[in-house]
Design a protein that fits this description.
Length: about 120
Amino acid sequence: MAKFKVSKSVRNTVLVVFIAVILTFLFFKLFGSDVESLAKCMSSKGIIMYGQEGCPACIQQKELFKDAFQHLTYVDCRETPDLCAHVEFTPTWEFPDGELLVGKQELKKLADLSGC
């Protein structure tokens, strides 16, 4: 049977990568994801997402938040149209100062605008 020798540099590289993966996993397990923190922060600041079932851009926006979407303040305009009288298009984000941001937004933009 043939023996393979692994150089020290290859072995050390594999070890460093393995440790980095473990540390990353532990960090997210202990501190939660950035997306979850963003959703919770936005909700605590009174930021509201208006959307509606079947809206492609709303679905894409929800997918960006993944499981953290449950932490956002969300109004479905088909279920509660009276709360959406000021909303022309969905998704629309409403900030506490009354500013409306229309359309699917990248998480970085929402984080920057919300201060989260």
